[in-house]
Amino acid sequence: MPRRSLPKIQGNRDLSRYFIPMELEFMSQIDPATAALAQPGDGADKVKRVEYASLAGLTGEEFSQRIFGRVAPTELEIGSGKGLFISGAAKANPERNFLGVEIAYRYALLSASKLAKQETPNGVMICADAARVLRELVPLNSLVAAHIYFPDPWWKKAHRKRRIVRPDVVKMIEDRLVVGGKLHFWTDVEEYFRSGVEIIKLSTNLAGPYSVLERPSTGTLDFHTHFERRTRLNQLPVYRSYFEKLS
Ligand SMILES: C[S@@+](CC[C@H](N)C(=O)[O-])C[C@H]1O[C@@H](n2cnc3c(N)ncnc32)[C@H](O)[C@@H]1O
Question: pLDDT-based confidence at 97, cuts 50/70/90?
């Protein structure tokens, strides 16, 4: 489904507890079309400037302390989009940390603004390529959950290697989950669901897939993510699964 324009984000906010933009150098290995999405906006907002190198090589506790200012069980969302999941999850689970990684600057900013507006500093957005964040920053055995909801399908066969549910990425997720940690994968694209589940089964030792029942919606906001809302309001199917690290 095509994207609609983003709501206007009010400028000049203090997002320093909620938003870590990437250094541009960090984007050098991604394709130009995606890199264009990742360019910073007007820069009017107060954001947390962090040297990526200073986040690398930390233990799980140090990483949690550095990003959230406290040590708590941490969940990662890849591709937060407009931030419905991360803002809802951070509000509903104050005892947990939620780190959202979103490559598109405007979407990362919008998600961080939602977190700031509801004053939930247990949710933090980082604007960067999730594969690189996993590879270089997220410590091993540090996540209690990873969430991938409605990832970009990259329809053309030649572009499939850009999909985020791919062997190297799901293996990195497995290695970064604690025992008992879960990987959640939902999409509206049946072919991506089937091939993604197969990739997870072949590339990791995660147990699953386990199916997830559809939650009845009581209103237009009672959905897991923005894309789930759009898909269900269009009466199209959503394919849901989760996997668990058993050892
Ligand atoms: C189709 S949208 C889904 C957004 C949200 N998860 C939802 O369900 O509403 C996919 C999101 O993933 C982001 N994305 C794509 N590739 C990414 C990457 N390598 N790292 C981080 N985010 C990425 C896109 O910018 C986009 O916002």
Answer: very high
Cα gap 206→170, rounded to integer Å: 10
Instruction: Give the distance between the most distant pair of CA atoms in the chain.
Output: 47
Which residues are catalytic, by number?
A: 152
Mean pLDDT of the chain: 88
Binning pLDDT at 50, 70 and 90, where does residue 188 land? Answer: very high
Q: Are 121 and 15 in contact (CB under 8 A)?
A: no
d(CA 190, CA 170): 19
Helix axes 84-92, 105-117, angle to 10 degrees: 30
Please tell me the distance between residue 247's alpha carbon and the centre of ligand 1 in angstroms: 29
Superfamily of domain 19-244: Vaccinia Virus protein VP39 (3.40.50.150)
The pLDDT of residue 215 is 82
* Neighbouring residues of 74: CB distance < 8 A, sequence distance ≥ 6: 60, 63, 64, 68, 96, 97, 98, 99, 142, 143, 144
User: β-strand 177-187 against 239-244: which pairing, if any?
Assistant: antiparallel
DSSP β-bridge partners for residue 19: 125
188-213 average pLDDT score: 97
Residue with the nearest Cα to atom 14 of ligand 1? 79
Rounded to whole angstroms, what are the CA distances from 135 to 129, 170, 173? Answer: 10, 11, 9
- Ligand 1-lining residues (CB < 6 angstroms): 78-81, 101-104, 107, 129-131, 149-152, 164, 225-227
